[in-house]
Design goal:
It is a single chain. By secondary structure, the chain is mainly α. 83% of the residues lie in helices and 0% in strands. The chain has helices at 2-24, 29-36, 40-48, 50-61, 63-68, 71-91, 95-123, 129-150, 166-171, 177-226, 230-251. Helix 1 runs parallel beside helix 8 (129-150) and helix 7 runs antiparallel to helix 8. It is elongated. The model is unreliable at 154-159 (pLDDT under 50).
Length: 252
């Protein structure tokens, strides 16, 4: 049972990386945008969100290798994707390379949502299967918590990082929970509102204006019928009279 627990925790670490990576990238949000001078749209939808796009793709197609080569081998290749993504993103010198390696990591994250719980459920005893599989979900939440703890703002944090050196400087940055909240929620809502303002509202205005023009034209034509187009009235009368006579003639 101890071996099964260790194996289950090891597989569930994919969930920890899932949760940690989802939050920790928010800490580098403003720095990356300033570094590469990217626009808000490109930065939000490509640089920051590329790992999430990869997660979606990995979750959709992750069942294919899981079924073909097995859960254990799939987890091994997921680990390779994590490693390649981490090293590539660390040495990336432009936003496109960075986004590409983030996408690779996202593929691993998405596939792990399929392979890790399936592997744990296979090796776990029936009476402990639910608790061991839940380790994956627990590790997702734990990863999010650890990332937020890292970004928790303290009063003694220096205003600049000039006096921070070595490994601490690599692990430390100046962005905390408020910046993460701004990146995840505030910017998304602002972008959505701008989209509605620039496209949806404009399209609705054009539609209403077009319908108004059509209604106005119909009213104008109706007014012509009411105020002097006697020829149209006469034509309609003759047409109706012919229809009645034809009906009476055919009825006989």
């Amino acid at each position: 049972m101890n071996k099964i627990l260790i194996w289950s925790i090891t597989a569930a670490l994919a969930g920890f990386l899932f949760g940690f990576d989802t939050v920790v990238i928010s800490g580098a949000d403003k720095q990356l945008q300033l570094l590469w001078h990217s626009s808000d749209a490109f930065h939000g939808s490509v640089v920051m969100a590329m790992a999430l796009w990869g997660t979606v793709v990995g979750a959709i197609f992750g069942g294919i290798p899981t079924n073909k080569i097995g859960r254990k081998k799939t987890l091994f290749w997921i680990g390779i994707l994590y490693f390649v993504s981490a090293v590539g993103a660390a040495f990336a010198n432009d936003p496109f390379v960075f986004a590409a390696f983030r996408f690779i990591g996202g593929l691993g994250v998405g596939a792990s949502t399929i392979a890790a719980p399936a592997y744990v459920s296979e090796i776990a005893p029936a009476d402990k299967r639910g608790r061991l599989v839940a380790l994956y979900q627990f590790n997702i939440v734990l990863g999010i918590l650890i990332a937020y703890v890292k970004y928790f703002k303290q009063d003694n944090v220096p205003e600049t990082d000039e006096n921070i050196t070595g490994l601490t400087k690599v692990l430390y940055n100046k962005y905390y929970v408020d910046e993460a909240y701004d990146a995840i929620f505030v910017r998304s809502i602002n972008g959505l509102s701008r989209f509605f303002r620039d496209y949806i509202e404009t399209g609705l205005s054009a539609l209403v204006f077009g319908l108004g023009k059509i209604a106005n034209e119909l009213a104008f034509q109706g007014k012509k019928l009411q105020t002097g187009s006697i020829g149209l009235y006469l034509f309609a009368f003759v047409l109706g009279l012919c229809a009645i006579v034809s009906y009476l003639f055919l009825a006989q």
